[in-house]
Amino acid sequence: RRETQLSNRARVPEKTRQPLLKGRAGDSSAASASEKSVRAVKPNYEQVQRWGNSFDSLLNDKYGLALFRAFLKTEYSDENIEFWVACEEYRGLTGPKRQALKAQKIYNEFVAFQAPREVNLDSTTRLATINAMGSPDRHLFEQAQKRIQALMEKDSYQRFLRSEVYQAHLRDTVQRDRTEASATFAAAAPAAAATASSVTS
């Protein structure tokens, strides 16, 4: 389950993998809604290329993040990215009551020893987070989130860049951008010709 253990275990057979950008039973409604909201969006080539240049660019792009989450779900190794997303949501909360409720939920699901989706934190980071649970503020999970982001950047992000889904997006966006450019040129050509004709007449 853990990021560092994934390379040592057998990959899930292709026929059992879930389609990308489709929810799996048990997924949170928030995650499913996020994925649904970007399905109709068509990223351009420069956008997709930026995902490959920087992990931060991928995480800060709605479509890129949803695609990365969906990719990890097909590998049944999405606990780290779901923890990262939950931390982002937590940092955006205001009010001590809402923060406390969300903090407890994140702790129970990802941080506690033998949690259902326990993330791979070193003992120092885990204990620091546990000790801070008594008086949670918006920075409560900051250290743990950075730790998990670093793990993903070294492992699952590299697999994502080598995956067919990412490579296919690169190919598709190149082709689509070329097609759109050709269509724009073809549409503009008659107007340009008419303008030139009126000038010379």
Automatic annotation (TrEMBL):
GO biological process: negative regulation of signal transduction
Keyword Heme: no
Stretches for region Disordered: 1-39
Keywords: Signal transduction inhibitor
InterPro entries the UniProt entry points to: RGS (IPR016137), RGS_sf (IPR036305), RGS_subdomain_2 (IPR044926)
Entry-linked PANTHER family: REGULATOR OF G PROTEIN SIGNALING, RGS DOMAIN-CONTAINING PROTEIN-RELATED
Protein name, entry field: RGS domain-containing protein
Organism: Macrostomum lignano
